[in-house]
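Batch manifest, entry 17 of 40.
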Amino acid sequence: MQLHLFLFKIHTKSMNIPSKYEPSTTENKWYNYWLEHGFFHSEPDERPSYTIVIPPPNVTGVLHMGHMLNNTIQDILIRKARMSGFNACWVPGTDHASIATEAKVVARLKEKGINKTDLSREEFMQHAWDWTNEHGGIILDQLKKLGASCDWERTKFTLDDDLSASVTQIFVDLFNKGLIYRGYRMVNWDPEAKTNISDEEVNYKEQDGKLYFVNYPVKDSDQKITVATTRPETILGDTAICVNPHDERYRDLIGKTVIVPVANREIPIISDEYVDMEFGTGALKITPAHDVNDYEIGQRHALEIIDVLDDDANLNEFGLHYKGMNRFEARKAFAKELDEKGFLVKTEDYKNKVGTSERTGAVIEPKLSVQWFLKMDEITQPALKAVADGNVNLFPDKYRNTWNHWLENIHDWNISRQLYWGHRIPAWYYGEGTQDFVVAENADKALELAQLKSDKNLTANDLRQDNDALDTWFSSWIWPISVFNGILEPDNDEIKYYYPTQDLVTGPDIIFFWVARMVMAGYEFRQEKPFSNVYFTGIVRDKQRRKMSKSLGNSPDPIQLMEKYGADGVRVGLMLSSSAGNDLLFDEDLCLQGRNFANKIWNAFRLIYGWETTEKVEDKAASTANEWFESKFNQTLAEMEFNFEKFRISDALMSLYKLIWDDFCSVYLEAIKPEYQQPVSNQTKEKASLYLERLMQLLHPFMPFLTEEIWQLMKERSIKEALVIADYPKSGTANESVLEKFAISNDIISAIRNLRNEKNIPNKEKLQVFTENDFIFNSEIVEKLSNTELITDKTAPENANSFRVGTQEFFVPLGDFVDAEAEIEKLTTEKTYLEGFLKSVRGKLSNENFVNGAPEAVVNNERKKESDTIEKIKMIDEQLAKLK
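Output type: structure tokens
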């Protein structure tokens, strides 16, 4: 212990410690130090592994507040694991983000006067790679500013050669198992991105629209049948009118034909149980090419399919004279023509939920198309069972119901996209028939299979590869496996060591896109879960509870925040307002609180560092404080461990925050510090420095830069003694009696300080406090922290002020410290107010209508006011009696 103090004194005396903590100089210094010495890098060894894979952000993305929250939590977990003896491995990487990246490339090409359709696939891909190389990876560099301790040597990109080969292999594997198939289905078409998207990528938004009531003339009759629709432009694609067979209004019309307004085509009136007789007019226009339900009815009744929209959602040649017009413009124009020609009966305002693209925001267009699908019925079962059995835990548990509902009602996954940027579908066509294709890992294998399947002497020129790309999530769902090359080499040392990973931190918005599918992939390709725990962060919102976004202008720049408050300050600010699964109401003042916390710790370090020492024996107050803080530290550490187990990381930080600010700085250091310009005992300073070290170890996962700086300043350390790899403290025994006794002492100190504030008595004035000698508290702590003299063997003067702590009464004679006349005037004024208040309360209670008519809780509250006021008046009378 003496050696530790000697090293602390020698090292700190030789250092010029700044008066203020300076994040701007500290952060780069220590991050480069950690990188230089490979503290973040992991290789398999004899230690147990602790692995996290980063949710890969878009390769050309930039850091936003959601990333800040998510990656702060991951870094806290990985740093704690690293210090707890685990071989911690945090794998970073980025996602190619097919739709988002291709949209940016297409936009840039347009600026240059180039259309995507003017380019070959290879030419477009070169432009996409140029864009990616130019803008990619920025977000990973920004994460370094945050302090993210990723194993950067393992950085992966979903279009890396090995990851791409892994995607191709699982496609082939699933196809050969009969789980992937090619089918003609109704899909969700995004006319802005020019691709179909999955059901999970469609967001439904309530919009104000119109309901148009349109008459269809019955052929060879004066009768008309009225249909209500929100999309009159699709009338040009109608191939039937459908009614319920039990609807008496239309029974005689079933089997007849009507004339499609404007188009002048004949279409049949059919019947189907699907039609709701109570909705609208009870008659439906059937447009199989533009509505999922209409398509199913059309299949049952063998109806013609007429698609009136092109890929841009403009009307095509079936749209007649509206060809080339945007669907929304055509809607207004066609409605006007219907009105002019007498077909439009009326319009009504109507609210309906419209499907929009999660990526582009465009209104989705149902579209019939040949696409690739993955059967989901069987592959989902292990994911359902994993959560049900507790093999995969969701935090908070409320997401279990969401998980079950989606997996129990899942549709086949549409995995093909009409994009170039991404993993090209490994299917090759050799003819025009629907089955004239093969699936293979590469062109050479495809040729072999095509020759066998066709029984023809085909050449490579006879084959053409599918032009579509796979859904981005089809590569992401194997991310925990593919980053360790577990698809291509399923028995390699790394996949066996690092997989399954431990914890996943992500947002609940991708629970279906990514999380559930990763669990499916884990069991499908490795017969094992991909992770044990999933921690769902909330959405970062502003103080008005609005989601942060660029369009609203309410999202601060994370880099600017870190420059202003320091990375540690921002990390603490985020975590103080974040609880698992609940939205985070971000307030920049929380970052200020984080920075102030850093300064508080820095000042505590400088205070201890500045103390001169002596060989004298430690005083009783310091000895008591040391005994108390040891138990308080162990108690808090146990609380933190409990909260970490439950993923209540914000609560863990708050426990530590209070331990440092309230207990260590405000109580412990005050209890042990020497008199002004006096030395402190060697033993006391040694103990304080050891406690500070342990606090830095606890705090390091939350505030890595500040803690490493203080740790290194406290004494000279070798590379192997860096805080980033130091041992995390282990919880000891907390002595409850010591804690209880000290808590009572704190209550006494608080009561005395309140009395000083009330009577305007400076803390430098020493007070006498009389009490009986049968109460258990730390008298030496009370006397030092409240600047009092405790007297237990004499009776207090009659005019002394009093207060109670528990059952013990304390008396404080104020004597010359109080202006008696001014105090009498103050108490008399307060008494007059209370008597007036009491009169008003009693007025209510004497009113029978109030007592008998008001809720019981309200009446009881008034009676409590009465009793409390009487007690306050009694106390004032007692104080006045002592002053007179």
